[in-house]
Amino acid sequence: MKKKVRAKGIAGLLAAVLAVTTLTGCRFGFASDPDDPNEEVKEVPIDTSADTFTYDASLEGTEITLLNSKAEIQAPLEKVSAAFEEKSGVHVEVMPVTDGDSPYTKVVSMYNSGTPPTMAILDTTDVIALAEEKAADLTGEAWTAQAGEYLTEVNGKVYSFPLCIEGRGLIYSKAVIEEALGEEFDPKSIATLDNFTELLEKLKAAGIEKPVSLAKEDWSLGAHHLQYIYETYDGTSEGAQEMIQQIKDGECDLDTYDRLEEFLDMFDVLKKYNVAKGDPLGADYDEMAIDLADGKTAFWFNGNWAWPNLTEAGAGEEDEYGFLPYFLNSDAGDFANQKIQASPSKQVMLDGQMASEKEQAAAREFLNWIVFSEIGQQMLVKTCNVIPPFINNPYEPADPLSADIYEKVQAGETFNASAIVPNDHWAVLGAAMQKYLAGRSDREELTESIAEYWKEQE
Amino acid sequence: MKQTAIGGNKRKAANILATAGLIIIFLAYMFPFLMVVINSLKQKRDIIKSPFSWLYTIKGLSFDNFVKAFTQMDFMNAFKNSLIVTVSATLLVTLFAAMLAYYIVRHNNRISKITFALMVASMIIPFQAIMIPLVSIYGGTLNMLNHRITLIFMHTGFSMAMSVFMFHGFIKGSVPIALEEAAYIDGCTRGQTFFKIVFPLLKPIISTMVILNALAFWNDFLLPSLVLTDKKLLTLPLSTYSFYGTYSADYGTIMAGLLLCVIPILILYIILQKQIISGVVAGAVK
Amino acid sequence: MRNKNRGKDFCMFALPGMFCFFAVVMIPFIYGVYLTLTDWNGVAKVKNFIGFKNFAGVLRDGQFWTSLGLTFKYVILVVLLVNVIAFLLAYLLTRGMKGQNFFRAGFFTPNLIGGIVLGYIWQFVFSRVFVNVGEATGWNLFGVSWLSDPTKAFLALVMVSVWQLSGYMILIYVAGFMGLSEDVMEAASIDGASGWRKMRSIVMPLMMSSVTICLFLTLSRAFMVYDVNLSLTAGAPYGTTEMAAMHVYEKAFTSRQFGLGQAEALILFLIVACISGIQVYLTKKKEVEA
Asked: Which Gene3D superfamilies match (chain A) (predicted)?
């Protein structure tokens, strides 16, 4: 009997807990907070009054698909597609790549299923892997003249459309630094690794014990950090390729390669002042954005794609954020200490295998429309909030991170080097970097893993 | 006399202990769900900074996440798709598997043996090993993707082995052949015997298999994501894709969306739960 | 007459199910086996026949064998824990206790959620909720995220799998217990020293068919763990929790060595087939003895 009562009691309790959950939910539900950081970002008006783009009327009614692997612009891209459809009559279906599989896996399975997307937004490495087998040749397209140094060529031909420029480095919050130090902060005054360490020490003395946020994710460590050792070889993509070839051929001894040594010096500094030093592999990406916006930290190693996270964490467009270079040494004349890495990381590939002539023509029109039409130009910058790689695009991105990269591109303070590494580079060496970050391996072991990795590549 | 008393006390103590243990384990089981329910009502910032606290949130609790999830998922449409796929596939697999298992149990020939052995073995094929061949056959060669019927067919095929295996065990153990022989004498055909005599006897295992299969179909992500790309055809799990960003996840909406996906299946489970038990009990009494 | 009937029977009862099964599972599988003998990368139009070169590649892939070793450790822990817990809970839940339906429903709930989402929830619990509790209480156990330590991350994976699978197995064990006759249950419900003996000598043999099924299911599921692995740890920290199925997937798609990945999947399949074959043989033998 007692047992029965008890079981009933517990069941009742649980029901009560659930009921309370719902009730309190209701009570709080209608109190809308005016400063809600989650509130939809206000719509940026697009001026559609001028449109000098000539549309090919014969393409009207064509339906094409665009596979999008840049999740944060899924909704904006749908708007772009709607605007394009209104003007041209071509329907562009924007399909997202889900988190469960990689863009490459998705494209491969779609090709296998015989229904590849007409266009696919992919990482540069993926484009290079697929280009000659699947992609349509875009060499003669009008927009290639506007893309300047941001074109990617495979054996002398262009197979992809650079969608945006992305830059990465150390994001700093000017307000946090100035408030802590009580003086004006000029990012230009930090020109070397020594300057940077000094600054960190000063911040520490001013009360910000650990001013740096360092992501533990393997893509951050394996791709965004580690790839500096190839990209800073001479600051060009060709140089990075040459460097990788040298490692593969065994011509370059990683033990004595100074860029690796320097890279680890910088990484050690970041590691030392990491806000999550106690549990570096437990660091949470979303929390880093909040910490930076709250002023708990002053730096976050990331790229301009981090802006949506910062907004969500409460940062506004009027706040001053910017990028510092990934300092490698104390030579103020070294380009690596002066420039930010920025390159076209997402590219649009056009299917040349299954898509019909008409579909291909419609896709080509869409790409040209983005580059040459007034509406397309605006939407790329204002709606998608990306940095356009095309010199004829007069619009400037509004958020501080993209604006900073944009300014630096204009001022020649960026270097466009993207290392083309095998697809599993970030995963395999990201793991090795995690081990190093957690303090469970030393430089020697890390260097060995890198050497080992390249030895296994054919 | 004395001994029984001690035994009784001991028994009582053991019962209380068992119940207490059960409750503790139960609460541990429910903990993640509690977390989901609580956090589905909170804003991202609060979820990240204080996932455990409930009333002390900066932004307060609200149903915003549910509203957002509901619209972004295109819930009604996705729900309809999930329902069609799940119901059809569950019906098909239940019927076909019961018949096939019945055939295998009653016809001990070579085909039966080989098929059964293959099915049992196939239960341990990693899905990854057939994923690409599957899409290249059905998509590349037969061009059958992006239809609900293809997904239903594939669900049926993939769950066939497991279902036959379960039905096989049950029929072998609990369906007496004497009943069927009596039916033949009364002039029933094979088909009539199966549907009128055997199938009703399978009720307990049918309810179990319906739940297990329906759950698997309802929740499956990988297979539908390979078969369906057309937005109008997306099932519920596929429709929550957009909450998982490349770099970070929209936790509040994810949890709200998750609850929205689970509620229908929870209702089905609660309804069928009673049936299983009455079915099993009825079977046991006979 | 008889033969004709047999053919009709076959068409009516066996064919529909067999057709679905062969078309969806066996044919792609056989095609997949053929692909292991080629150098196909998943995309190219040409597939060159290269014989058993991929299998030689498997032998050289040290990471595969490491992940396989880890999988064995994982399987042993999961299979034991799941079955012990599920068996005991099912036993408790079939003794006519008040509210047992409620509990049964509760224990099954983890299965209402798909594996990938489930992993995300637990990742959130381990990396945010527990750490938060640790900060608030100062408990060392939760001081750092479990997912950042190789051993604890592995244990987290085991815990979540046990949590999920045991609910499923409870259902089967409950059905088994309910199939036992009243007097058997009566005999088993007498507690004390003799109760345990009766449990072993009377109940266990009658439950062997349920045990066979549950062991088989937990074995194969644990060996092929993928979605929870992916969404809970994704191999982190630094690849120490990467199980065999996940490694296979990574090989085929991230490293783009499709034939090699497919060959590893085949080897994994053969291993699981052998082990579960032995298990079914052994437990079936016990059933017959009873």
From this structure: Periplasmic binding protein-like II (3.40.190.10)
Within 10 angstroms of residue A176's Cβ, the number of other Cβ atoms is 25
Give the CATH number of the domain where residue B201 resides: 1.10.3720.10
* Of the partner residues B38, B62, B131, the one whose CB lies closest to the CB of residue A28: B62
Task: Identify whether residues A153 and A180 lie together within a single domain.
Answer: no
What are the mean pLDDT values of chain A's consecutive 10-residue runs (458 residues total)?
33 34 31 36 69 86 90 86 92 78 78 86 87 89 88 88 92 92 91 93 91 89 92 90 90 88 94 89 85 92 88 86 93 91 91 91 94 92 90 90 92 88 86 91 93 85
Task: Print the domain residue range for A199.
Answer: 167-342+418-456
The predicted model scores a pTM of 0.77
CA nearest to A309, candidates B51, B248, B57:
B248
- Paired residues of A92 in beta bridges: A64
Which run of H or E residues covers position A68?
Answer: strand A63-68
ipTM score here? 0.80
Residues B258/B263/B268/B272 CA torsion (nearest 10 deg): 100
Tally of CB atoms within 10 A around A39: 12
Check which CATH number belongs to the domain holding A72 and give it: 3.40.190.10
- Strand A160-173 and strand A299-303: the pairing is antiparallel
Window B:117-176, CB contacts with C under 8 Å = 118-130, 132-134, 136-137, 153-154, 156-158, 160-161, 164-166, 169, 173-174
Is the Cβ pair C9, B103 closer than 8 Å?
Answer: yes
**Using CA atoms, how far apart are residues A131 and A123, in angstroms rounded to an integer?**
12
Q: How many residues does chain B have?
A: 286
Tally of structural domains, chain A: 2
Residues A66 and A79 both lie in one domain: yes
Peptide bond into A344 cis (omega under 30): no
Strand, helix or coil at A382? helix
Sign of CA dihedral C38, C39, C43, C47: negative
CB A11: neighbour CB atoms within 10 A? 16
Query: Are the C-beta atoms of residues A407 and A424 closer than 8 Å to each other?
Result: no
Residue C212 vs residues A101, A452, C78, C279: alpha-carbon distances, Å: 35, 45, 16, 8
Q: Which residues pair with C38 in a beta bridge?
A: C49
Instruction: State both tokens at C72.
Output: 């064995």
CATH architecture of structural domain C60-289: Orthogonal Bundle (1.10)
Residue to test with chain B: of A20, A38, A92, A93, most B Cβ within 10 A: A38
